[in-house]
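In this supplementary section we document a worked example of the pipeline. Step one takes a protein sequence of length 265 as its only input; no multiple sequence alignment statistics are reported here. Step two produces a three-dimensional model, which step three serialises into structure tokens for compact storage. The input and output of this example are shown verbatim.
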Amino acid sequence: MDWGMQNRLGRLIQPDGHCFFLPIDHGYFQGPTSKLEKPGETIKPLIPYADGLFVTRGVLRSCVDPRNCPPIILRVSGGTSIIGKDLAHEAITTSVQEALRLNVAAVGMSIFVGSDYEHDSLLNLAKLVDEGQSYGLPVMAVTAVGKELEKRDARYLSLCCRIAAELGANIVKTYWCENFDRVVNGCPVPVVMAGGPKCETEREVFEFVYDGMQKGAIGLNLGRNVWQHPHPVAMMKALRAIIHEKASAKGAEEIFQEEKKEKKG
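The serialised model returned by step three reads:
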């Protein structure tokens, strides 16, 4: 692996081999998502606890302070919306040259395995990897499922992750599921967990994150369960304890409750 590639990955993956990324790219297909109407204000108190920020170039330029931000993973796929015909009909929207101009640590894009646009998204990934390799720029593949949430099982996600790795992705972001070790064990590159829909309780979030870390994930890429939460900083600190301090779900919940109390006090 070239020096530049190692250097960029080293910005994102911490010395303990783990990472906690904060995604705020939802607006590229959802518009002004609840709590992300003003992304700069939402992320300001959370930035100190994030190892990386997953964001589009528009929000990066307009809402993120270049003098005070974690390493950037740039969302470079899009072209569809939540009210459109098919979320899977994405294309590459941002060039590698633009990513380099923005001094990002990596680029990320979605793949839609099993959709009508599977072929297009996988070829987009392959081409992005080719370009990324030319410039020492890591690529994170996101195993998106569009509106078909029922596909989030180990068999499907292990297929998606392995294909992404085979096409050259350096990191794969995928959903946590039952038997998550099957997903991780079948993927020869690092796996980070996506959050998916909001959980009913904080403990549910801590449980699935802890389980995923125990089963081989290197970290987390979690957005809505953090910045849509009434106590986002407490959630960040608690989750960070699981990722970087080997805290249990119970330990994370204790940290969350303590941080929540301190804020009220």
